[in-house]
Design brief:
The complex is a heterodimer of chains A (about 325) and B (about 525). Chain A contains nine helices and 15 strands. Chain A has about 325 residues and is an alpha/beta fold. In chain B, strands 7, 8, 9, 12, 13, 14, 15, 16, 17 and 18 form a ten-stranded mixed β-sheet that branches. Chain B has a six-stranded parallel β-sheet with strand order 3-2-1-4-5-6, with helices on both faces. Chain B has a two-stranded antiparallel sheet with strand order 10-11. The two termini of chain B are about 45 Å apart. Chain B folds into two domains: about 30-180, NAD(P)-binding Rossmann-like Domain (Rossmann fold), CATH 3.40.50; about 215-510, Dihydrodipicolinate Reductase, domain 2 (2-Layer Sandwich), CATH 3.30.360.10. In chain B, helix 2 packs across helix 14 (about 450-460), helix 6 runs parallel beside helix 7 (about 185-200) and helix 10 (about 265-280) packs across helix 15 (about 470-485). The chains are: A alpha/beta (about 325), B alpha/beta (about 525).
Chain lengths: ~325, ~525
């Protein structure tokens, strides 16, 4: 069910929520968190809501979408409540704000009365994020602040901002995207021989915060030199190489879908290593709400990476892709 | 083989620099390994195992180069087997189909044709497995899933041993997975354990009780031991009795032949319900390490006794024809292919008590049945009545006992029932419920029980699999009931779609209680 409340205010909205619960019983309790999505109004918000709805099947939540419209307009709030079949396992409140209401301070004020009592708050910026999420008025309300450096207009700068303003509770979807890579590499080191890694190399697109973070993570964990090579040969991350005395472990993904793992003395193994949907990585993010120290370590590792460019030979093939 | 301790050391990051206990995102991917399934044509393989293997692959939890070998009598080529798995995945997998995941997985499929007494076939199986080690890098690590009737276990195990498939050298492991029923009484359970342990050491044996998904067990442990709220009242001072129910609405349709002579008590009470009882009644384990958890379960099962005399404290029934919801269904004896003289019970209820200080005098009622009102599994902890001192009798006429109900399936969650004032000018108190669900679409996105079970087998993590002394202890509890029932009488008929025979109601009423309608 979708209820539209044009030109309204938050007390009317709250009364309507209570009324919906009493009349339909649809707004079940048992929500485990409030997810605030901060974005500019536009067609993109439906994708974000859809991903959040999917993730809510694992984490029942209330979703508040702050969709900011044009600033040069009169103050106005159009609200929409979605429950039941239109909202997955969640309830969705879309706040379309215009004029002064589209700013940060009023945004936070509109969200406060709608937060579920006594449960964690997570803020997610699917696109552009504030310079310092933890100091943003809406970010301040949250225990967990999710950004996405890759989705911004300047990913390299965004990642640098994430590094310089990081506080516990911040996280970035560029980090979440590499969980499978990290898991495969960690699993490869689980087995004999247990030798130290003497150096490592990560090859990826020139603009790939995920590749940077993977290199940063290896730097932080391995106490060995790590090189980050820029290459246009494949979308996203194209290969990781861990050098050990007995020979290198290599995980190569030339097409963005299938990885090949080679280890000395073992047959080549292929593994599906597709890029993950937003709903999957968002669900992973919501699974834990405590500070992610490993991510903080990876950010710190960024400054110690050596950077280079791939030799021309490997640059054949695919152009830059998202 | 890597011992559990070595593995723990390994995984806490002391030898693998990329592991860190704080890195909770990092899933445990199984090491290089493969699985051999016996009984690939059965329902279990097609509806549960194959889809679960695909789902694991899709979630990136299977090792690269995983091998899956099917063994059956069918005259199939590798493509036919691949097609069977494909259909199973298409129809039953939980996660969306991805061509690239499927292609990688299918590269590791092999099929071996043969019957269980065919030495040649097992030699070919050994070659196939060795070939997987070479080509796919499964490194000699293999799990054998016996999705076959238990009377075939001895011959298959003997063949595995004869063809050298059970030999584990160095870092390699070989494990065997068996499904319930684990025997049909204490004696046969011991025999089965001997047969299995003659070939596989106990730490390589994984007994799967698929009803008891790991998620359920962990939810229950979290509810009991992560909260301060429930523990103080979780004892005989406050608890009046406990009802553990597992009801199915289906009849015996296709499984009739298997079920004759087994019955509800052996099929469900011995494993599932006694495990739920153990988890409900056990003391807090020192840690959630598998051996600590088991130690507590075994302690509580050792203290569990039946209420006597058994003629008064147990009940059994057999479904007769009736309306199952909107459908007219036949009785057990009229089921196609079923023995019309059978005295196999389809409903069983027993009364147990746990002889510990915590639970002294609290009856535990366990019941299970087929063709009951609806499909439900739940643990209901019923509390004693409050003394109601300030209230007059008329005010609390409609108030029952407080209850805490752990719903295991469907709609996993917790319900608390308590009294609340009815709105209006009169003081009147009535039962209300407060409800928690683990998520409206929990079953959709939570991992299927088999996924976790298979992953645990490949990781060698036995925490929630019953070990043989748990199984034997459960039979020790149940055997007197089975003997008493075999000695005299027949099950009481009950109409399909009802909540069991009248004798079950009399059984619980003798102790002054009534069954909850789940």
């Amino acid at each position: 069910m979708i209820v539209d409340l044009p030109s309204t205010n938050t007390s009317v909205l709250n009364r309507k929520l209570v009324h919906l619960r009493e009349s339909g019983g649809v707004l079940a309790l048992g929500r485990v968190l409030t997810l605030v999505i901060v974005t500019n109004d536009g067609p993109g918000i439906e994708d974000a809501i859809a991903a959040a709805n999917e993730a809510s099947r694992e984490h029942p939540c209330r979703i508040i979408v702050l969709a900011r419209g044009v600033r040069k307009a009169a103050a106005r709030l159009d609200a929409q409540i979605r429950v039941g079949g239109d909202a997955g396992a969640s309830e969705v409140i879309v706040l379309r704000s215009y004029g002064p209401l589209a700013g940060d301070e009023p945004g936070a004020s509109m969200v406060i009365p709608l937060l579920l009592p006594d449960t964690p708050v997570v803020t997610w910026w699917p696109g552009e994020a504030p310079q310092s999420p933890s100091k943003d008025p809406i970010g301040e309300l949250a225990q967990r602040r999710i950004t996405d450096a890759f989705a911004t207009s300047n990913p390299a700068r965004a990642l640098e901002l994430r590094r310089s303003t990081h506080v516990p509770g911040d996280t970035d979807l560029s980090w979440t995207r590499i969980t499978l890579w990290r898991a495969l590499l960690a699993a490869a080191l689980d087995n004999v021989p247990h030798e130290p890694v003497t150096s490592a190399r990560v090859v990826g697109e020139p603009v790939s915060p995920s590749a940077d973070l993977l290199a940063g993570w290896l730097t932080a964990r391995l106490s060995a030199p790590v090189k980050r090579i820029r290459s246009d040969a494949a979308p996203g991350i194209s290969s990781v190489r861990l050098v050990r005395p007995s020979g290198p472990i290599e995980l190569v993904r030339p097409d963005g879908k299938i990885g090949t793992l080679t280890q000395p003395g073992q047959p080549e193994r292929r593994v599906a290593l597709h890029r993950r949907d937003t709903k999957d990585i968002l669900a992973e993010e919501l699974r834990r709400l405590d500070p992610d120290e490993i991510y903080a370590g990876a950010l710190q590792g960024l400054s110690q990476i050596t950077r280079g460019r791939s030799s021309a030979g490997s640059a054949a093939g695919a152009g830059r892709r998202r | 083989m890597t011992s559990a301790r070595e593995r723990d050391l390994l995984l806490d990051g002391s030898s693998n620099p990329l592991r860190d206990p704080r890195d909770k995102r990092l899933p445990r991917i199984a090491g290089p390994s493969g699985m051999v399934i016996f009984g690939v044509t059965g329902d279990l393989s097609r509806k549960k195992l194959m889809p679960a293997i695909y789902d694991l692959a899709n979630r990136g939890l299977l090792p690269p180069g995983f091998g899956l070998v099917g063994f059956a009598r069918r005259d199939w080529g590798a493509e036919d087997f691949s097609q069977i798995v494909y259909e199973a995945v298409r129809d039953h997998a939980r996660t969306p189909f991805r061509q690239e995941v499927w292609d990688r997985l299918a590269e590791g499929f092999r099929f071996v044709m043969g019957s269980f007494d065919d030495d040649d076939a097992f030699d070919r199986l050994a070659e196939t497995v060795a070939d997987l080690d070479r080509v796919r890098g499964t490194n000699g690590n293999h799990a054998f899933y016996l999705a076959i009737p238990p009377d075939k276990f001895p011959v298959v195990l003997k063949q595995l041993s004869r063809s050298g498939l059970t030999a584990q050298d160095g870092d390699q492991w070989r494990r065997v997975v068996i499904e319930k029923p684990f025997g049909h009484d204490l004696r046969s359970a011991r025999e089965l354990n001997e047969v299995v342990n003659a070939v596989f050491p106990e730490e390589s044996v994984f007994r799967i009780d698929h009803y008891l998904g790991k998620e359920t067990v962990q939810n229950l442990l979290a509810l009991r031991f992560a909260n301060q709220l429930f523990e103080p009242i979780w004892n005989s001072n406050y608890v009046d009795h406990v009802q553990i129910t597992m009801a199915e609405d289906i009849g015996l349709g296709g499984r009739a032949a298997y079920y004759d002579g087994i019955g509800a008590a052996r099929d469900v009470i011995q494993n599932h319900l006694l495990q739920l009882l153990a988890l409900t009644a056990m003391e807090e384990p020192v840690s959630f390490r598998p051996d600590e958890l088991r130690a507590e379960k075994i302690k509580v099962l050792s203290a569990t006794r039946l209420f006597e005399p058994l003629t008064d404290t147990t009940a059994r029934g057999q479904y007769a024809a009736g309306w199952q919801g909107s459908e007219w269904v036949p009785g057990l004896l009229d089921e196609k292919g079923f023995n019309p003289e059978s005295s196999t019970e389809t409903y069983a209820a027993i009364t147990a008590e746990v002889d510990t200080r915590r639970w002294a005098g609290v009856p535990f009622f366990l019941r299970t049945g087929k063709r009951l009102g609806r499909r439900v599994t739940e643990i209901a902890v019923m509390f004693k009545r409050a003394p109601h001192l300030p209230f007059e009798a008329t005010m609390t006429e409609e108030l029952g006992q407080n209850a805490l109900v752990v719903r295991v399936q469907p709609d996993e969650g917790v319900t608390i029932r308590f009294g609340s004032k009815v709105p209006g000018h009169q003081m009147e108190v009535r039962d209300v419920t407060m409800d928690f669900a683990y998520g409206a679409a929990f079953t959709e996105s939570s991992p299927e029980a088999y996924e976790r079970l298979i992953l645990d087998v490949l990781l060698g993590e036995p925490s929630l699999f019953p070990v043989n002394n748990e199984v034997e202890r459960s039979w020790e509890i149940l055997d007197p009931v089975l003997e008493a029932w075999a000695a005299e009488g027949k099950p009481d008929p009950y109409p399909a779609g009802s909540w069991g025979p009248e004798s079950a109601n009399q059984m619980i009423e003798r102790l002054g209680r009534t069954w909850r309608r789940p």
